[in-house]
Amino acid sequence: ATGDLDWLKRRLPDLDRALRYTATHPMRWDAKHGLVKRPYTIDTWDFDYTAGRYPGLNFQITDDTFWGLFHGDNSGAYESAYLLAELYDAVGEPDKSAEWRTWADGLQARANALLFNGAFYTHFHKLTPVTFPGVDEAAQLTLSTPMALNRGLATPEIAEAVLDEYARRHAEGRAFAPWFSVDPPFPSGSFGDEKLVAGAYINGGIFPLAGGELARAALVNGRERFGVEALETYRDLILSTGETYLWYFPDGTPSSVETSTSPEAMPTDGWGASAMLWAFVEGLCGIIDEGAGFERVQLAPCWPSAGVREAAVDLSYAASGAGFGYTYTASDARTTLVLKGDADVQAQIQLPEGAGPATVSVNGEPVPATKEQGYVQFDAHVAGETTVEVQHGA
Question: Which H, E and C letters describe 239-286, residue by residue?
Answer without folding.
Answer: HHHCCCCCCECCCCCECCCCCCCCCCCCCCCCHHHHHHHHHHHHHHHC
